Amino acid sequence: VIMTSVILDSNCTGIPTGIYRPRLKRFQILKNKGKTFFNGGFGTSLPKKLHLDEGENLYLWIEEALFLHDAGLAQFFNVAEQDEEKITNNKLKPLATQELHKLLQFESGVDMAAYLTFSHLRSQSYRVLRHSESKRVFLNQQLVQDQTTIDQKNEESLRDKHREWMAHAPPPKLWESSSPSVNLAWDVYKPNSQFCKTNPGHPHFCVLVVSYSQPSPTFSQMKYVLSEVETLKIAAVADSGTVVMFGVTNYGVPCLKNSMKEHNDESANK
User: How is residue 171 annotated by DSSP?
Assistant: First the structure.
């Protein structure tokens, strides 16, 4: 896979800056300049249980940081807390592309195929979140209960829930053909400058990441997934890094026998 990126100089102070927090496996944003994060749907605050500092700092998953780095929209560092002053004094070099890929491979738990899918969707301006089964179940229950209106108190509670779901969402993985279950990787939302990670609503579609050279999920497996999500897309990732998306829907196929009977009845009535 050939990865390209803009090389950032350590004196580049006009773009957002983040530092890696190993315990959280996230990047904390130290300098947030411009509208990259808010308009792009990047980053979120941690749930109250995980707050390590006062206030609500913005944090990025590794896939978000790597994508922004490759686009030349942010720079990131991996230093001890006592050395953070060196960042502001321009005495440290930001992480290179290879170093960020090492974090992705060895610490984040995110498969390369899953990241390539994330990057593919993000490059088309989609808003992409890690899939959370807890969030899916909750939103489906809301649909069943027809809870279309939410007061301010419940809205704040819902925002806290979303932060909790995002904080504990599992690392997106490549689906293995030997796996008996189907684990979705991403929840995808249409491009929207008003998108809010802590209240995104139902995803436009969910994504399952598979290898292009391996067997696809069985018909029964896909049918089960479609009973749980509204729209499914399968991202087939080739060894070269090419990502091909396939849409899967559950429209059903009309019964040929019944169709022929209706046709014969219409012909007889004429």
Answer: P
